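FAQ: What does a ligand-bound record look like?

Like this one, built around pyridoxal-5'-phosphate:
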Amino acid sequence: MKKELAETGQLKYLLEKIGGSLDQFLRFEHSDAQSSDKNWKESLNKPVPQKGIGIDAVSKSLSEWVIPYGSPVPNPGFTSFITTGATTASALASAAANIASPQRYMMTAFNFIEELSLDWLAEMFSIPDFKGVYSSGGSVANLVALGGARQYAFEKIGIDPAAEGLTRAVGVYASVQCHHTIQRSCGVLGVGRRAVRPINCDADGRMLMSELKAAIASDKEKGILPMAIVANAGTTDIGAIDPLHEMAEIAKENEIWFHVDGAYGLPGILDERIKDRYKGLELADSIIVDPHKWLGASVGIATTFVKDREILFRAFTQEPANYLEGTVQQQAEPETKIQHSADDFGIPYFDYGVELSAPCRGVVVWAMLQEIGVEGMRARIKKHNDMAAHIYKLAGEHPQLEALNKPELSICCFRFVDKKIEDLDGFNQRLHRRLVRANEYMPSTTKVNGQLGIRPCYVGARHEFEQADGLLQAVLKIGNEMLAEI
Ligand SMILES: *Cc1c(COP(=O)(O)O)cnc(C)c1O
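The answer part, i.e. the structure of the complex:
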């Protein structure tokens, strides 16, 4: 039975072969892949190999032509969108799961940790009554949550929508600032993207309650079935938190499912200075969070939390299949002592969402929390919020800078201003391109109340406080160079 290590995919072998180039990559001493060396594309662009080159040659090309030309995302200066590199604990646990438990089902230590880590997250986020299920990202997590909402809305009128399909038009109430995966989820769930009613926000990006109430009343009058109220706990653009408590009350009065999209912003609840802003969270029916954003997990890890996991079971259960029944027991009979991990599937996560085969993700969250604890996470989140607050303060004080949002979380949009500039949006867009090409500070841009801003979003374990000052200095330097060219 003994095989060459190379054939069984052992980590030791792989790390020996590519560990050095990964290490080098993470020192970020190279410049950006796109600008530094054009040869990598030529080296990689080969026809499908008919004869294999062997594992040694594969690891050599990985080290030479792939890893060094990887993504800027894990770079400490990268603050675009809401994404960052995996922490060491996270990368380690992903690799462990990859090798030691390729599937999350079956009653293994990994399956056990899947549930334990979900309970840890629920406790850490002050929602201890919620049960979770992991999926690949906020997109799928929102889909799963809204699948629960669809089930709830139609069961109330005596229909099982998952089994029988839809019989009525529905309304979903989300702010104009909601992430576009809400619309896509509604498309996939068959209720239609147009079912999402775009509710306006105030100047701080928070949903207006008067408009929410009016939209629900208007749909009810037309015989449209209200399906879900969707709140943002941290909008993607500026990190605004909707008035959760008021929304929860409106949802309760109208018996509508209340969903909170905290893909980015849920971990903000750890910052006790702003914990009040999450009041009402515990009244939600579903909540999502992306450990692969602010917690620093490797990409591909999101969580949907619900009060009642049985509703997800009814929304997403697979019909029985011959190849499954009997091979493994779903639940071991109480009198049979479990002899083998294949005697029990463990918790049937595959019936609570849309994935059957799926990696063990809980072990990643478990490893990260073991490493730094809730206190370590809290310290990191507070540091990131402080960085955004620092930018807000300095931009307010400097005559050539202007902040565009007062940060609730770790995003502060700002722009370069000077009376000589006629087109501020165009100027800042060009400034941003120059800034990013220098490869040290890589924020993105967005529009805040119609004005283009440079948008750093601090979520990475490698984002250090000094970078907030550094970014402002870099913007001022480039801005003044551009002014001199006018
Ligand atoms: C990022 C984000 C999503 C989508 O999450 P992915 O993990 O990228 O699929 C959904 N909602 C909000 C508020 C987000 O910030």
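Follow-up question: can I read anything off the structure? Yes, for example: The chain has a mean pLDDT of 93.
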